[in-house]
Design brief:
heterodimer, A: 56 residues, 0% strand, B: 244 residues, 9 helices
């Protein structure tokens, strides 16, 4: 890549942080959604185990 | 004709549909965002006035659009839940809120960094910027209100009402650049049939917008699965869903 691409015509200090932060926001959304789903699965599994324990 | 609508009231159907759709949305989002990034950063020509700083538009405009889209989705889902008493509407609204809030933060951050070289300031109490900031407060308010009640059903109803009332801010944000004197530039793409960008700049932007929408769909589906499980954890079908 040429130097001109990275320097963004002198606006590199504004352009690249925007794209970097966009990557962070997208990555956070994926991570948080997966974590939320996994935690819900665990809570549901625990509730089922407790229900099975109460029934026996 | 309305069968599909009633199916959306069924938690196992919603859970299954969300699980099936999420990977498709994510894969298509990866393709469209990749094209938009490469074409927008490397191949689109610099703007004749803003130079390469204009490339911020490729993350700023899609995130700003998505902040409005996610809010509207949240309010419509809340209204459906209140009117037809479809509990899954509250689940969709709850899943949509944090995603929309994160897009709003991204829009404000990128707008601020764009504003510094163009307007000479990171922030101005401009109608567009201020109404977008109010949108962030609305998201935070809706999320806080939902978790403020001991009874989750009351929290859902209160959050849905606030989301519906806050919907008035969406057209204010959109038309603020027309209604008031604003530092913010006017519509670029929304002028149907006559966008003020050439194709080499416009196609990457449309691709990024589509990519962000697909990404929102993917993350919404993933969060929705969690929401459904949290709300239905005592139901019999959950046992099968967890085993799979």
């Amino acid at each position: 890549m040429s130097n001109g691409f990275w320097s963004m015509g002198g606006y590199a200090g504004y352009v690249w942080p925007c794209f970097l932060f966009a990557c962070v926001v997208l990555a956070w959304n994926l991570w948080a959604a997966r974590r939320y789903h996994a935690a819900a699965r665990m809570r549901a599994a625990r509730a089922l185990l407790m229900a099975a324990g109460d029934a026996s | 004709m309305w069968t599909w609508f009633y199916k959306l009231a069924s938690p196992p159907y919603v859970y299954g549909a969300a699980a099936a759709l999420a990977p498709w949305f994510l894969g298509l989002a990866a393709i469209t965002i990749s094209y938009g990034l490469v074409a927008g950063l490397a191949f689109a020509p610099p703007d004749y006035q803003q130079g390469d700083a204009f490339r911020i538009i490729y993350v700023h405009a899609p995130s700003a659009w998505m902040s409005l889209f996610a809010y509207t989705s949240m309010a419509v889902a809340g209204a459906i839940a209140l009117i037809w008493r479809i509990k899954m509407g509250h689940a969709v609204a709850a899943a949509s809120a944090p995603i929309g809030a994160s897009f709003t933060v991204l829009a404000l951050f990128t707008g601020s960094l764009w504003g510094r070289p163009m307007w000479g300031t990171y922030w101005a109490w401009d109608p567009r910027l201020t109404s977008e900031l109010i949108l962030l407060f609305l998201y935070v308010g809706v999320m806080s209100l939902r978790s403020a009640f001991e009874d989750p059903a009351r929290g859902d109803r209160a959050a849905a009402l606030l989301a519906i009332v806050g919907l008035v801010n969406v057209p204010i944000i959109h038309y603020s650049v027309l209604w008031w004197n604003s530092l913010h530039q006017g519509a670029t793409v929304a002028k149907l049939g006559k966008p003020s960008m050439p194709g080499s700049m416009l196609w990457p932007l449309l691709s990024m917008l589509l990519g962000f929408m697909l990404f929102y769909g993917a993350v919404l589906c993933m969060r929705l699965q969690g929401e459904v499980l949290n709300r239905e954890r005592q139901a019999k079908w959950v046992r099968e869903a967890i085993k799979s």
